[in-house]
Design goal:
- InterPro entries: Gfo/Idh/MocA-like_OxRdtase_N, Gfo/Idh/MocA_domain, GFO_IDH_MocA-like_dom, NAD(P)-bd_dom_sf.
- Residues 7-123 form the Gfo/Idh/MocA-like oxidoreductase N-terminal domain.
- GO terms for molecular function: nucleotide binding; oxidoreductase activity.
- Pfam families: GFO_IDH_MocA (PF01408), GFO_IDH_MocA_C3 (PF22725).
- With 334 residues, the chain is an alpha/beta fold.
- The chain folds into 2 domains: 7-129 and 289-304, Rossmann fold; 132-283 and 316-333, Dihydrodipicolinate Reductase, domain 2, CATH 3.30.360.10.
- Helices cover 35% and strands 29% of the residues.
- It has helices at 16-27, 42-52, 61-65, 82-91, 106-119, 133-144, 178-194, 287-301, 309-328, and strands spanning 7-12, 32-38, 56-58, 72-75, 95-99, 123-126, 150-160, 200-208, 214-224, 228-235, 237-248, 251-255, 269-273, 276-280, 332-333.
- The chain has a 9-stranded mixed β-sheet.
Length: 334
């Protein structure tokens, strides 16, 4: 295959995450190019295309999927539309990068994975943070035994968007709420670092009548093997933070900005052993670019995706259990 060939992307929608982060990341990557964008509002598609230097704008998602020159699509649509447009993109023969969470339920996620397997296309969930090399560094430190045996993990992700109006995250029927929007990061990170699945979930949620009765705050405990508890909180109605702490028997790993990474700023983290706090240098990279290049290598070079779509199904299983636990105020066994 031509080594100069780049993966040609179409974008289904002009959501903020696409315009602000994912499209620029693809454009700055090694192996990708964004060739088209679609919106149900054709004028909006044209404006976004002009703004970002995208050659083609379409006034419908169907028109973009019918474009044979497009290899892959990115789906940043509201959560309840992920299943429909993943299935339609797979039917059109497009490889798919779908925003997190992949679906609304484990069953939906499995259906999406199966449809992509049947169509012979790749499917990846857009949890970009996992592609940053610092997570490999963190895993290596854990595996080395430097901090001893892992005793627990604590993860936070919160911001205050409670005053916004018309926010799709406040639509319960659209898969809104803090757990689905940002709790997925904490759950995914715990599973990634521990290399295993939790056996139970207990979550308390603050469901707000002012915000469509979605969980505006959720605090949880995930139970893993070896008596490891993972605690996390996710909120759309609290002060901003996004942190990760791995507590070991002999030391601690602290990640001050666990899920947000700016290639122009330090993403360094810290290891504390015997009272000595050591800063671990991290390459300054764009994890959105790395996420795109991972898909491109799978499509163009036949390499395996770093994270199989089955991982998204497993994460969805835990997310669904967490939401059920919060709604029923009970411990859910997985």
């Amino acid at each position: 295959m031509n080594s100069d060939r780049k993966l040609r992307w179409g974008i289904l929608g002009s959501a903020s995450i696409a315009v602000r982060s994912v499209i620029p990341g693809l454009q700055q990557s090694e192996l990708n190019e964004v060739t088209a964008i679609a919106s149900r509002d054709e004028e909006k598609a044209k404006q976004t295309a002009d703004q970002l230097g995208i050659p083609q704008a379409y006034g419908s998602y169907e028109a973009l999927l019918a474009d044979d020159s497009i290899d892959a699509v990115y789906i940043p649509l509201p959560n309840h539309l992920h299943r429909e447009w993943t299935l339609r993109a797979a039917e059109a023969g497009k490889h798919i990068l779908c925003e997190k969470p992949l679906a609304l339920t484990e069953q939906e996620a499995q259906e999406m994975v199966q449809a992509c397997e049947d169509a012979g296309v790749h499917l990846a969930e857009a949890l970009m943070y996992r592609h940053h090399p610092r997570y490999d560094q963190i895993r290596d430190i854990i595996a080395s035994g430097e901090i001893g045996e892992v005793r627990g993990i604590h993860s936070t992700f919160s911001f205050n968007s409670s005053g916004s109006t018309g926010n799709v995250r406040f639509r319960r029927d659209w898969g809104g709420g803090a757990l689905y929007d940002i709790g997925c990061y904490s759950i995914s990170a715990a599973r990634l670092l521990l290399g295993q699945e939790p056996s139970a979930a207990t979550v308390i949620g603050m469901f707000s009548p002012e915000h469509g009765h979605v969980d505006m705050m959720a605090s949880g405990l995930l139970e893993f093997d070896n008596h490891i508890g993972v605690t996390f909180d996710s909120s759309m109605w609290a002060a901003f933070r996004n942190t990760l702490e791995v507590l070991g028997s002999d030391g601690i790993i602290e990640v001050p900005s666990a899920y947000i990474s700016n290639p122009d700023r330090s993403s360094n983290f810290f290891v504390i052993v015997d009272g000595e706090r050591k800063e671990i240098e991290v390459p300054q990279v764009n994890h959105y670019s790395l996420q795109g290049d991972d898909m491109a290598r799978a499509v163009l070079q036949g390499k395996a995706l770093r994270f199989a779509p089955s991982d998204a199904v497993a994460n969805m299983k835990v997310l669904e259990a967490c939401l059920r636990s919060a709604e029923e105020r009970t411990r859910i066994t997985l």
